[in-house]
Amino acid sequence: MSLLNRVVLVVDDDPDVCWALEHLVEGLKAQCIRALDCQGALQAARQNRLALVLLDAKLPDIDGLELAGQIRRAAPGVPILLISGYFYKDDPAIQAALEQGLIYGFVEKPFSHTAIIAAMQTAFCSQVVASGR
Amino acid sequence: MWIYDPRTLSFLAVNDATVECYGYSREELLAMTVRQLHLPADMSAPLDVLLRSPVSAEQKGPWRHVRKDGAVIYVEVARSAVRVAGESACLVVATDVSEGKRFELLCRMLLDAIPSSVLLLDEDLRVVLANRNFLEKSQQTAGQTTGKRLAEVFPEVIIAEMGLERQVQNVFKDNQAMQGQRLTYRTPGVPIRVYYYSVVPVSWGVRVDYVLLLMDDVTEQMQMSEEIRQMERQLASVVESASDVVLSTDTQGNILTWNKAAQKTSGYPFEEVKGRPFFEYCDEAGIRSVFSRAVSGESSGMIECNLKTKDGKDHPVSWVLSQMTNDAGGTVGFVIVGRDLTERRKFEMQIQESQKLASLGVMARGIAHEIRTPLTIASSAAQFLTEENLTPEFHRECAEKVHRGIRKASAIIENLLRFAHPSTNKHKTPVDLPQVVKGAVSVIENQAKVQNVEVRTHLPPEPCLIRGVFGLLEQVFTNLFLNAINAMPYGGTLDVSAERDGGDLVVRVTDTGDGISPEDLGKIFDPFYTKAPPGKGTGLGLSICHSIVDQHKGSISVDSHSGKGSTFTVKLPLLSRTEEVMR
User: Which region holds residue B108: left if phi is over 0, alpha if psi is between -120 and 50, else beta?
Assistant: First the structure.
């Protein structure tokens, strides 16, 4: 199971972070779509068959966890990885979001490429297994 | 001479002399009572008792009787018991002493009316006469005093210790009055009395016939002056031991008194400042304006200005000036009380520093997020660089990202360091306020970003100079911005504008948050008042803003409507053109 030709949505208001994640996604031969805000993210979620969402926790117009909920409603079953420098791993807000299934995983910024690639693959596989595709 | 009935007081018989003396006819007298001979003013129950009492040999008088024509005569009376028709009656022999006695009586009355004690002494130092005041004070009767030697009238101790007899004898010998001596006199059972006495010769020529011993009871005055002295001592010790500087000046501001605290704080002993203008020892302009306000009768209020010490230092002191007035309400000088603010300033500085660190704590998450973003980019780009077969363009792009990310992170840290660093320089210098506001905006930008708050600034392009401490002013605006951001948990707009208003620069900080309820509005500048959850705010921010703005002779106010947001307005006095040129 690989992300080959799958669509991955990257949501971050910082173009340079998007640049890094885009290169990583493309390195996995997946297709990357970029969104810088809430509206762009929801539009992309509705218009594409997403395999995975990489989401920043703080956006200019919305809180990342709130956007996670909206993406889940717009594209049910698509795993979301929250990537943030605002929270830390044991953060109660992150723990709660993981328990509720709002997000699939959490990666702290700055991240190692190995860790984020592993997280992306795990999230994608789990989604495939869960949906039976 | 007449006989009267002691039961009815009616005349029973009168002789011709009585008729002649009193001017009534015999018939008229026989129809009267003896009571009617007395002066109406002298009539009293005791008189009636006396007239009705059994006759004794005792002679009472002189009495004041009234003749038919209304003239008052003085009579001496001798009563004796007789029997008339088998009934007991009273025979009265009255002698008209008016001519001889009138003057003596007047003298006697005068002596008794004098509120001093008077003793008339003869050459043998025997009491010829003691007035009523003396008899009352010494609790003696005329009988116990008249004819007695001085030594029998006064206690032995006084006679011996004061040398009273000798003094009286000297006056007899020298015919010279002896003035003003103090005498403490104690009668058993009566509290001690203090007298001022003098001995005056009474003479009709060279020979001194009598001397007058005049004594004035000054016990109350002595007590009063002792109390006044005690009160003065107490007041003086209050002023001396006060920890505040207390001094007084005349209306021109020349120093009259200077307490220990003044000496300790300034280093100048009283001798060096006595009579010198107070203005020489403090920031002249400030204190002069307070003086002129006080002279014109306005309330002086409080002013903070430096006291110049002998070793050339400046002590921050808060002064209060009050008028000293005389009984007629005229200003006779000023009382100036000064409190040394050195310790308070140190404490305020500590609070300001700790509050600054506390606000860094509040910003920690925003700071973390903002620093981690450029670090993420740099880190990621660096990891790409470790991969093989990179195109030269991508290689260069990665290197640029690393560099830019590190620069960005470093800039954020630099801003924070500048904010957190204790401001060692607390001296006011000309400061461009819009630059201060920009600096504060850069400190809170990260926090604004993570809380989805858009920051809009409208600042004058030209420099707007005020006299102040850059670090402290930056702290004011950082606090105000952070408060505004925290008032908008779901994002919003923070609008920061500055404009000139006369001689002031007015900075308005407006948020689109929940606003402040009317009941909280009056308390927001109070220390430790906070609505933030524990750990999110100290409640010191706004009180420190208030204190810093105060120190810069400015004002801070708030206008807020629940649900619509708040506007904090900071007004600071701009440097005048002259000051700008002078700097």
Answer: alpha
